[in-house]
Amino acid sequence: MGLNDLATAALRRLDAETAHRLAVRALELGLGSGDTRADPPILKTHLAGLDLPNPVGLAAGFDKDGRALKGLARAGFGFVECGSVTPRPQPGNPRPRLFRLTPDRGVINRMGFNNEGLDAFADRLRRRPGGLVVGANLGANKDSEDRTADYVTGLRRVRDLADYVTVNISSPNTPGLRALQTREALDDLLGRVAEARGPRPVFLKIAPDLTSAEIGEIVEAALAHRIDALIVSNTTLERPDTLTAPAKGESGGLSGRPMAEIARRALQAAAEAAEGRLPLIAAGGIDSGAEAYHRIRLGAAAVQIYSALVFEGPGLLARLKRDLAERLRADGFASVAEAVGAR
Questions:
Q1: Euclidean distance between CA atoms 185 and 278, whole angstroms
Q2: Residue 335: active-site member
Q3: Do the bridges between strand 45-47 and strand 50-52 make them parallel or antiparallel, or are there none, so unpaired?
Q4: pLDDT tens digits for 28-43?
Q5: Catalytic entry in 171, 233, 255, 307
Q6: Residues 6+ away with beta carbon under 8 Å from 147
Q7: Contacts of 22 (CB under 8 A, 6+ apart)
Q8: Is the pTM of this model over 0.90?
Q9: Is 79 helix (H, G, I), strand (E, B) or coil?
Q10: What is the per-residue pLDDT for 306?
């Protein structure tokens, strides 16, 4: 067992939120062994104007305040998404609010956009290390009277500091936020976002708990307002019958392996609606090279991971990339792009 594996095992003995906070702090200090090996050329890809060394990103939620970028720059991700950040600091929901479903390889969270606000976030982005593609995931304050204005405020603040910006309207832990996914509300939001955006790509992150028709409407709205990519998807409110962990009944969004099929279904609906007109990024339940490859063949140009790292440790990333490269070669693909949508 390597040092990273030992550290992961030790963190799992702590409550979930304390372990998460310590992991972020360690990366902030630059601790942990990085992956200094160059990615195989077959993994290089292009996404919405961004050149990525590999298509495997870190999903938002891990590094909410942009604290861990020093360590994450050495970890081997193709890109890293920080946030969600809201204009004003907020504490989030009362603890406990983060639960491991260890036998299910899943996580339930009801964090509630806990973060230090835009001022601290923007300051850290200004000092971020070079050589890492960084995205800023934007949220809205829980008590905001105009949530659309919160996204515009966030966008204006970070549009020149991040490599891309994600508008997150799909967290289940801020009451009413997912209502912004309706076509009328989305047209208003994305119209105002389009007026405020700078030269960087803007992504939209949606929930998996939508019908195919609703996802189709979102795709059309995204295209109409020049959104550069769609992240499919956030955590789910569904609870599969297969869950066995004692915490399975906790409220909040479910992530990890138990939501894989739900996320696949949403991705397939988005791919069918987009018909190649809008890049897609797959998230939710991706814990292996096989699953990453499956999502790419369903239509994803890139993937994001997070919850799987809780159970598999930081070594997962290198294993996943190695397996993905082998699968691409075995099926005769010369690049990730060639495999996108090749079901």
A1: 20
A2: no
A3: antiparallel
A4: 998 876 777 899 999 9
A5: 171
A6: 140, 141, 176, 177, 180
A7: 11, 14
A8: yes
A9: strand
A10: 98
